[in-house]
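Let's see one such:

===
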Amino acid sequence: MNHYFGEVKKLAESFDAVVGKRATLSLSGAAKKRPRILVCAPSNAAVDNVIMKIMEDGFVDGNGCRYNPSIVRVGVGQSASVRDVCLGEKVDNYMTEAMDVTKLDNTIEGYKSECRRIHSDIVKLRERMTAMKKATPYPLAKEWEVRIDENVCRVFYVNHKTNKIDSSIFKDKRTTFECPPPPEEDNAISRHCNA
């Protein structure tokens, strides 16, 4: 999974891979890195049991978050609960949808709209990343955070230094548009965040 996310990250950081033929090649290259798992068992019932357990519980990723993978069941399933993921059932559904030209056109237009939205998001994120990279020529001290105003794409800095007055501890959340001075050697931990 790390190889897959590495490829997607490279794609997101590449300026020339957002549109056209290069985007298609880059996406297909990233898709080849996506992990797949083949599950085999000595009986149809055993395969169905594995599928039902995955459908109920899902998987846990490296961050501890639950997700449900896409599943295709090859062969005849014994259980009605796995029928939706059977290859034959999926093909029949696609063929039925393909017969309805209006529905197919609407589906294609929906995908095109989603692609335009994703492309727009990538362009905006790239602008933010570039602005933040240019605004921080060195790693900031651990109490500083880089943020960006979404509306005007302007970088600002937040100081999270903890202050103690009497017995009270509070965070001094001062903001500035000026880059803070370079940290001392033992305090140099880069801290980036998008707000």
